[in-house]
Amino acid sequence: MEFAGKKTVTIGTYVPKPIDRIWELWTNPDHIKKWNSAGVDWHCPNAVNDLKPGGKFNWRMENVDGSDGFDFSGTFRKISDKHKIILKLDDDRMVTIDFTRLENGTKITETFEVEDENSIENQRKGWQAILDNFKVYAMNESADNP
């Protein structure tokens, strides 16, 4: 798939939880800090999410030991409540996240423009690892959490 001639990667997962709950877990900064990492050596100590067109987001990702880190940040372009998020990263790449209501859960599909620093396969693996971490978090969290 390509956006305006740029190479993209699409990843996805299915979570057997209602779309309303999945949307809350995906967009609430208190939850983002708990699932936004690609592995046990990384964490997300801070998340800001102004979920509206033109709103900014900044999800800080760091090694647990503090040796490395970066900001995953940008601007929301379009929000279709509990359906779609389109955002533009600060490095000008576009990302689309689709949430599809299914009979017994929610399908999440992310399509992102690739960057030039890492191989496409490494980018796919990294983004999928974060999405898989979201699924694990969503499956194990309780609706009583923030």
From TrEMBL:
Gene3D superfamilies: 3.30.530.20. Belongs to the AHA1 family. It holds the Pfam family AHSA1. This is Activator of HSP90 ATPase. Signal peptide: none annotated. Residues 18-137 form the Activator of Hsp90 ATPase homologue 1/2-like C-terminal domain.
